[in-house]
Amino acid sequence: MKKLILTLAIIAVVVVALGDMFFIVDETKLAIVTRFGDPVRVIKDPWFYWKWPYPVETVLFFEKRMMAYDGRPSEFLTQDKKNIVANTFTCWKIEDPVKFLQTVRTIEGAEVRINDIVSSEVGAALGKIKLTNLISVNPEEIRLGEIMDDVTARCRKMGAANYGIYVESISMKRVNFPEQNKPSVFNRMRAEREEIAKKYRAEGAEMGTKIRAAADTNKKTILSEAYRDSEKIKGEGDREAMRIYAEAYKQDPEFYRLVRTLEAYRKFLDENTTVILSSDSELLELLSRENLKKAK
Amino acid sequence: MKARLKVASISIAVNVLLVVIKVVLAAITGSVALLADAYHSASDIGVSLLVMLSLVITKKKERHLAYIEGAVSLVIAFLIFGAALGIFIKAKDLRQSDIRNIPIALGGIFICIIISHAISAYKVREGTRLSSLSLRADGFHSRMDMLSSIAVMVVLFGQMIGIPLDRLAAIVICLLIAWVGVEVLLNAFKRITEEGQMELETVGQILRSGALLENTAADGGMTTAMRLISYSGGTILGFILFLKRNIRKLGAAAAAAIILLYAASGIYRIQPDERGVILRFGKPVKIDIPPGPGYRWPGPFERLLKVRRDVVRRTEVGFRTKADVGTMPVEKEYLWEATHVSGLYTKKPDEALMLTGDTNIIDINLVVQYRIKDMGQFLFNITRPDALVRNMAEASIREIIGRERIDDVLTKDRRLIESKLVDSLQKRLEGAASGIEVEAVMLQDVHPPVEVVAAFREVASAKEDKQTFINEAYGYRSEQLPKARGESEKMILNAKAYSTEKVDMAHGDADRFLERLGEYNGSERITELRMYLETMEKVLPGVNKYIVNPRSVSSKHDIWFFGPGRKIYYPGAEEY
Fold first, then answer.
1. Global ipTM
2. Is B354 in contact with B367 (CB distance < 8 Å)?
3. pTM
4. Which of A31, A152, B65, B553 gets the highest tally of CB atoms within 10 A of its CB?
5. A-contacting residues of B 34-93, CB under 8 Å?
């Protein structure tokens, strides 16, 4: 019985040891084989490998793919003394797993170091430029690309030398004003908008007045032209009438005088008129008998 | 012997026909039970094939060929088990059977039942006539098939009146199929161990045979149910006895089966919307495997990754769509002031707020749609593609917005920004060898920050006001000018009328004068007098008249008048 247990135990140990001797490195992984804690082999290609079983050799796996580290937003001061909050993100991967293991051990550890070096590099870079080198409507002023290339190059050198990582790219993800500055930015924006609004209203008033004035002018022109034309027409009528009258009346001015005078009497002698007639007048002379006799 | 072969061939042909009918019916109805029944009939084809094979081998008296039959039986048994398992999984995963075209299916399955009945009767009769036990057994088997078809018919009928039995029936039929598998397996072992002859003597086999006796005296009054019990009981008993006798050989067979199953675990199937990648010891050996079935090495040697390559993925920047909106109120329309505290979306102000080139703050929400362009790169070069795309999209949009004026972003440059963003993002993703292709970028909500929306709206109102002023002025002009034109027309017309009137009057007056003049000439004095007197007559009556005698009034006296109607005292003048 004891023998059987011993045999089984030995078999179990052998099986476990054999199982521990083989490992597969995936396409997405890097591996280090350590012998009593010392790295002895670095495996970068995926395949099927063997090693000595556990206490002698162990295998450690690392991510081979690119990782994107989303940096912590930090406040910086630009050369023209503007406070900005910048946030970068870093694409990186493990290049030298042995150095990586010795210096930062884990991805989290690496991210802390990346944040440190990127923050310091970005801070230094931003201190040398103006805000308008980051954001501007004038494309010639913008130097964001070259700044980030510069930061990337420096961080790449540092990462490779110190932590066994390869920094592929560092991008400026966010540039914002700090929360405390926002109210004043908003105030400025509001003021700008108010100005624009006022301008619009003033423009409206200006154009409205112009249009009204033009309309008034137009109206006056029309009416004066009409007056001019109508007076001319009337004059023409008058002239024609005068000609006709003159032509007719000049044939016997004396008769005209008679007719017209009598007509005028009919018109202007009314109830309000008081006439003082001489009893000697042609009209009344027959009133006195002697005159009557005379007439006879 | 020829006759037996003929019967077996007919049986196979009929079963093929049944399978075809049932598969078609299953396709047009969508019933799993029908599909299961089709598989059941298909398993019968396997059984019939085995019967045929056994007939051939018996004929040739070549015992060693029995091994071949055994092996074939084994394969068929596995196929049958596989079919049973497949149906079972399908029935299990199916949420709701949605069955259509039930009347057609009922008709079809009825025909199948009749065919099954005919072929089973035919096989049993011929088996009796030719005294072939295996043919009779096969005939009995066809009767089971008929029973399962009847069950399907009941299920379909139930489904029609609203009792959902489809899945249950499918599972029951699975068990029937598995039962057929057990039988075939038994046959296989029997052939391999060459103990078939001995088996016949066991109680089980007797019971089984008893169930199949039909035209003999022992048959007297056996019901179908009794036959079924007798047959099944016989099989189980036979199986147990068989296990007991052949435990070692069975162990070997089990080991073989395990190896077979292990090897079979390498069979895979890639769905139509997927692509496969095979990794051998972690190294990709086959990338972009098109949909369909295939084989890889099992276990730790090769690994299969399935990726939905062509699906368009989506990343949101500035906001997130809530996965579960539930009963939350959804805003009807999104205005600029919306703070997105409730409703379908969650706002991410850090992502959405950005600086424009003229140092204003703007709130931009966008959606990026992307696809896998290079599966190798996508799988093995990058981690967390969604986060990568979002981060890069954020970097790109800020770089672009940082060169724009806020007014342009809000109005005319949206399309331009989208296309610039696609280019910039694509460049970044290619730089990272991510294997991702940007399909489209859509700016969603683009507006000023909530804090200054009122001011922006004020600008819009001012713009409206401006237009209002202008329109009012145009209104004034539209009112005044026609009036003036009317006035002018009126003046001209009046003048013309005046003129015409004047001329006409002149003509009239002139003509009258000339007429009178004609008469006047020659009798001047008398006409003059007449006209004078007539006029006086006309004029004087209404007039206040004072007649004064010039001789009685000295020129020194004044004359006093006291208004109309008053008596006038005039010295020397007598009252008139």
1. 0.74
2. no
3. 0.60
4. A31
5. none
